Amino acid sequence: MYNNPCEKYTIELAILYLPRSSFHIPLSNGYILCTNYYASWSMPYTQKINIKYIDNDTGAMINLPGLYCEKGLIISHLRYLALHQHKSESWKERSLFSLGLLLTYINSVKSFDKATELLRSFSNALVTGTINFETLNDPLDLYWKARNIADANNILYHITKYTDYLASQDGYESSRVNPFRKASCYEERLNWCAYYQKQANVFLNHLYKKNNVYIENQRVREINGIIAPKVDQEKAIKFPDSEIEKFLQVGFVKKGQQDYKLIAMTMLMNFGGLRKSELFHLFVSDITLNPNRESEALVRVYHPEYGRSPDPKFDNRATYLMSTTRYLPRTKYRLSERLYSGWKGPLLTSRSNFFEVIFNPAEKAEEFLKVWVNYLKYQRVEPSEGDPHPFAFTNSRGAPETLKNFQRKHKLAVEKIGLECRKELGTTEHGHRHAYGYRCRKAGLSQIEIQRAMHHKSPMSCLVYTCPTSEEIRIELGKTE
């Protein structure tokens, strides 16, 4: 299973996440003994393992999640993930999770002759679950609860993408698990509706070849996802404006002193509109004095890999980090590693691959600068000489601050002022960005201006902030009575 002379990639090391276990991976030049220590997610029949995957052509090593079952390591999925190595870690993990569910289901049923019928049965099991609630038994011994439609459709999407990749390999073109069929009139209309909605927001859409579109819209997958109920811009719950000042002044107090680091991080979210993940890509050099308003801060958020390096000797931030420190861009860590921080692909506004934070209200730029200076002067723990790094926010040992630790301290601060930390109440970290968006709308900014302020790639993304809520409509109607 492992020694295939046609393989482009070889496996250097795999760590099986089972307590006190080990196994061998045979290679062309011998084998490697792999031992392990921690358990990750697991399902009957499959286990997730960590893989260091090496490209024989370039020698580049890629950290990938792998799937291990009784037949061995699933090499084809590793090659599939390697092909999509620039996808987010959450995308890779979701693909692996989806395949693990399918393999577990296959191991339980063992009775389908056609792969397409098996996939249809699997898709139904995701939506309905496998439990017979009359007898409280499960003939498959899976005991799956019903998943929501969006979750089930996402799993089906990942399975379809992977099996399409398998079908694209030489000799397997006719074995597509989820093949295409001719669309009905209704399905073709839906395809055209989806096409026009997508094209309305695609730059240079006039360059698309219309002939190909006609062909594509006349076919659908044999197994389609379920059409979910339409939700028209569900209200985004924001952090309560009436509590933000108390939250900053009282919530982040430790041993009688204000925690300037946590205050600065929260201000960047609530008054600067940053996502929580973006905080952990900031370097100290990214926060400076505004040359046009010296009493205000200028904050630039660079792409974690391709952003301009603070040292001109290096082409970008990835090269700078790997050349001068032991750290990687934080998007390059595995999702399970503490230094990982995501990147949602915001709209960048400079060829140096950054965007600038626009404070709202504007006077908060001056207030933030004072907090930032106090943090640097009195509280920031500098990295040790043996472990240097440029990241703006550090922990008590001088190492880069982590998302998990920030979330924990944010939750404690919310509870300290008597609130409950829940997404439905807007009191999680992302509620601050929602508060920023609503504040932009209240300030009278147009849809395009809100898009730029919040760094969305599409102007449609900010509709959740520009559309009036049900309560606001009731208030306006009440004014006419």
TrEMBL record:
One GO molecular-function entry: DNA binding
Top-level lineage group: Bacteria
Domain Tyr recombinase residue range list: 234-478
Gene3D superfamilies: Intergrase catalytic core
UniProt keyword Signal present: no
GO BP, one annotated term: DNA integration
Entry annotated with the keyword Cytoplasm: no
InterPro entries, sorted: DNA_brk_join_enz, Integrase-like_cat_sf, Integrase_catalytic
Keywords: DNA recombination
Record's protein name: Gamma-mobile-trio recombinase GmtY
Lineage: Bacteria, Pseudomonadati, Pseudomonadota, Gammaproteobacteria, Oceanospirillales
